[in-house]
Amino acid sequence: MFTGIITHIGIIEELNFNKEKDLLIKISTIKILQRKLQIGCSISCNGTCLTLVDKKISAKKNILSFQVSKETLEKTNFKKLKISDPINLEFAMRLGDEFGGHLVSGHIDGRAKINKITKIKDSYKFTFTAEKKLLKFISKKGSVTLNGTSLTVNEVKGNSFSVNLIKHTIDNTTFKFAKISDFVNLEVDMLARIAIRHSREGWNSEGLKKELDSRLRGNDIEEKRMTTKVSRNKK
Description:
Blueprint: E1 8-17, E2 23-29, E3 42-45, E4 48-56, E5 62-68, H1 70-75, E6 86-91, E7 110-120, E8 123-129, H2 132-135, E9 143-146, E10 149-157, E11 160-166, H3 167-171, E12 183-188, H4 190-201, H5 205-234
Antiparallel strand pairs: 1-2, 1-6, 2-5, 3-4, 3-6, 4-5, 7-8, 7-12, 8-11, 9-10, 9-12, 10-11
Helix pairs in contact: 4-5
């Protein structure tokens, strides 16, 4: 699980496809890593939960390697990445860490397109369009994750929604490089998804609790599955 608070901006160093058409990606970071990363751990890359398959840590530069499946490529903006592009990174939340944003699973629901960027004093208003099936989970003053960044929704209108980014967020994320027509990875609020399903299917409070517990356990199971897969590949 993540909270949507970006800790590093990485740089795309290599992009290669294997015979299964999965994307093998290498990302560098200059900033000192404050955590000892283990092979098989989860890292949010532009909001996408990816498994660390290899690493090279040094005083000058860190290289982190990931494998992006064909399914993930179809759902995210990874297919548009180029060498030297910046990418938002966040390490998985640990028990006892500060909960700075909101619950983020790293499972991308789709992409949103930047339609407008408006400067308002020291902040910027970003307006996005998204698929109608995703907009039903996005509401005014609710949470949304865009390229891994936890943001509060300003308004929802038609097939678009807007968020406001303060200078600190702009300076510490890839949004400082964002342009009109760029696509960003979108993850809707987990709690909003559960609440809407709850209201549609008429669950009682116990059913709602079971669904949330199931989703949280699902992230644990996926992490163990990917760790096992990496271990097998290393043999």
